[in-house]
Automatic annotation (TrEMBL), chain B:
Annotated GO CC locations: proteasome complex
Keywords assigned by UniProt, alphabetized: Cytoplasm, Nucleus, Proteasome
Subunit comment: Component of the proteasome complex.
Described function: Component of the proteasome, a multicatalytic proteinase complex which is characterized by its ability to cleave peptides with Arg, Phe, Tyr, Leu, and Glu adjacent to the leaving group at neutral or slightly basic pH. The proteasome has an ATP-dependent proteolytic activity.
Family, similarity comment: Belongs to the peptidase T1B family.
Entry-linked PANTHER family: METALLOPROTEASE TLDD, PROTEASOME SUBUNIT BETA TYPE-1
A Pfam family assignment: Proteasome
Source superkingdom: Eukaryota
Location in or out of the cell: Cytoplasm; Nucleus
InterPro entries given in the database record: Ntn_hydrolases_N, Proteasome_beta2, Proteasome_bsu_CS, Proteasome_sua/b, Proteasome_suB-type
UniProt keyword Plastid present: no
Organism, scientific name: Labeo rohita (Indian major carp)
Protein name: Proteasome subunit beta
């Protein structure tokens, strides 16, 4: 199954079947084929509950399983046509709404006021590397033309055991290309008996997206991963994180298999165990790479993407440094997303946070930022009250003297 | 937004490029290197549209290296410049269906297979014009796939000496004693006109470069905090210290 199968489709690319060859006649209305795909689809969603990489940023379609797992219960109907909602497998067809709905670029809030730059990525995502690994964080609001289509969509998608990608742009495109990337990385791993590095994965994604330059495909991803063969992390992780492979049923079967094969493959390649070095090491260590569908591919230590990114950058630039602890890093990432969601209309709801280390990725519990906002207000109030009382005490002291 | 400059001396070429990788109003990276090493003594500086720069420059880079592997000797700077220009010109008016040079029609596959077609791999691109609804990138009738890149190619040849070649996105090629690309070029070309002499020493060339960058800092509306500077002479490519021009 090559890229040409996907490129050759008449409609915008659908999810390629892992086992069956992709037919040109694969039309969404063909329910008979869907039954075979349905099994796959259910299996796929069973592998990724709550991950919901299929739930779009721009267009929302309900997935029964996903709804029950979502922290926010909502019963709003999807924006796509009603009959497709009934199918449990309509998450395989992000193409349907794309035909009926307006193009992905959201229209400005007040068209009369010219925007300083195009708000084409309605999101806030960020990723940065530090001594304890890589933090990837994102909000969870999916917007479509000024309407919140989904308040609980995951924008950080695990690709394999040591690589997560934050997504920005058109959700369907992001979900599809992440999946294609995951497939290609797995194939590479099977063929060459080692995991492809984050830089290699970024280059692969960039080259795969290049033929679509100039089209409406819009994917702006930050690949956050850990390179290297060392499965034994020298530093213990001290935070309470959820364990990804058992609870979240990680990215695919490949992640559990890769954890098994990677140590075996590591021995012939690396003679000495890699140490966690103080800076971005050339051989192994944390990596953050930004890949955009317009062709930009940047390797760095800190990236933020989306309409809320300027707000996030201003928090991150002052607070992120290499030697920070995991707690600090998590707190800074949370606060950056929180501030961005506060100011940016297209970002909001919850914050997802992933932490990637040599052992793999771990996912933090999704947190509702509304609570954070009220906690912040409470803190402010308390601080003001404290300062007032301090001033009063000082005045009293002065009077006594 | 981006800025490239090159100054040729009697036995060297001095080139500099800014280090900012920007996306709309955000500086995404402050230490981005816009120079691509084509061979031991040839540098390609490339600015322009986001993905086109890296894609085209890497393509030229790999093909120059392929030439060396096949023939045992390196392309001269003049030959490399003309090769680059030819490719840029071919893509300027290329049409899907009539592939330029010897291209691989299944080139979207090249990233996954290990075949060597023996020809020159050309990355196929989606054309810029609007497409009919539902057509994939293969089915376009008449359209163009130009690369919007502005280049400076600097090199040292054993026989011909140093050479600086200016190339723009319409694939106009000119060998010039000094050249610049970007909005900053408007501000700095007259300084180069005024102070350039064909027999510049290395120190004088660096001073001239510093003058240009100071002017940029003073008058250019955008902040370009640092520049990568490299010098090419008969001994190869030398990294010089980055020029941080302190904001006044």
């Amino acid at each position: 199954m090559a890229l040409q199968d996907v490129c050759g489709l008449q409609n915008p690319p659908l999810f390629p079947q892992w086992s069956a060859p992709l037919l040109r006649s694969f039309m969404p209305e063909d329910s008979t084929h869907l039954s075979g795909g349905g099994i796959h689809g259910e299996a796929f969603s069973a592998r990724l509950p709550g991950r919901g990489s299929l739930s779009p940023l721009e267009f929302y379609m309900p997935i029964a399983e996903y709804l029950t797992k979502s922290p926010i219960n909502f019963g709003q109907s999807s924006l796509s046509s009603a009959p497709t909602c009934l199918l449990n497998i309509d998450h395989l067809h992000p193409s349907l709404p794309s035909i009926s709905l307006p193009p992905p670029t959201p229209c400005p809030i007040s068209p009369s006021v010219p925007l300083p730059f195009t708000l084409s990525h309605g999101t806030t995502t960020l990723g940065f590397a530090f001594q304890g690994g890589v933090i990837a964080a994102a909000d969870t609001r999916s917007s479509c033309s000024g309407l919140v289509a989904c308040p609980a969509s995951p924008k950080v998608l695990p690709i394999h055991s040591h690589l997560v990608g934050t997504t920005s742009g058109t959700s369907a495109d992001c979900a599809l290309w992440k999946r294609i990337l995951a497939r290609e990385l797995r194939l590479y791993q099977l063929r060459h008996r080692r995991r492809l590095s984050t830089g290699g994965a970024a280059k692969l994604l960039s080259h795969m997206l290049h033929p679509f330059k100039g089209t409406e495909l819009c994917v702006a991803a930050t690949l956050c991963g850990w390179d290297g063969d060392d499965e034994n992390d020298k530093q213990p992780i001290t935070d309470k994180y959820e364990n990804p492979p058992t609870n979240q049923t990680a990215a695919s079967d490949s992640s559990s298999q890769s954890a098994g094969t990677a140590p075996a493959a590591s021995q012939p390649l690396v003679a000495t165990t890699q140490q966690v070095v103080q800076s971005l090491s050339k051989i192994c260590g944390p990596r953050v790479i930004y890949v955009c569908s317009d062709g930009l591919r940047l390797k760095g230590g800190l990236f933020s993407v989306g309409s809320g990114s300027p707000y996030a950058y201003s928090i991150l630039d002052s607070s992120v440094y290499w030697g920070m602890s995991v707690q600090e890093a998590t707190a800074v990432a949370r606060e950056a997303v929180f501030r961005a969601t506060y100011r940016d209309a297209y970002s909001g709801n919850n914050v997802d946070l992933y932490h990637v280390t040599a052992k793999g990725w771990r996912r933090r519990e999704r947190e509702n930022l509304k609570e954070e906002y009220y906690r912040e207000k409470e803190r402010e109030r308390k601080r003001v009250a404290e300062r007032k009382s301090e001033k009063k005490d000082v005045k009293c002291d002065d009077r006594d003297v | 937004m981006e800025y490239l400059i090159g100054i040729q001396g009697p036995d060297f070429v001095l080139v500099a490029a800014d280090n900012v990788a920007a996306s709309s109003i955000i500086q995404m990276k402050h230490d981005y290197d816009k120079m691509f090493k084509l061979s031991e003594k040839i540098l390609l500086l490339c600015v322009g549209e986001a993905g086109d720069t890296v894609q085209f420059a890497e393509y030229i880079q790999k093909n120059v290296q392929l030439y060396k592997m096949r023939n045992g000797y390196e392309l001269s700077p003049a030959a490399a410049a003309n090769f680059t220009r030819k490719n840029l010109a071919d893509y300027l008016r290329s049409r899907v269906g009539t592939e330029p040079l010897r291209s691989n029609p299944e080139c979207s596959m090249i990233y996954f297979s290990n075949r060597d077609s023996g020809g020159v791999y050309l990355p196929k691109r989606a054309p810029e014009t609007c497409r009919e609804q539902g057509d994939g990138p293969d089915q376009i009738k008449a359209s163009q796939t130009p690369y919007h890149v502005n280049l400076l190619l600097a090199g040292y040849d054993e026989a011909d000496g140093p050479g600086l070649y200016y190339m723009d996105y319409l694939s106009a090629l000119a060998k010039a004693p000094f050249a610049a690309h970007g909005y900053g070029a408007f501000l700095t070309l007259s300084i180069l006109d005024r102070y350039y002499r064909p027999d510049l020493t290395r120190e004088e060339a660096v001073d001239l470069l510093k003058k240009c960058l100071e002017e940029l800092n003073k008058r250019f509306i955008l902040n370009l905090p640092s520049f990568t500077v490299r010098l090419i002479d008969k001994d190869g490519i030398h990294d010089m210290e980055k020029l941080p021009v302190a904001p006044k």
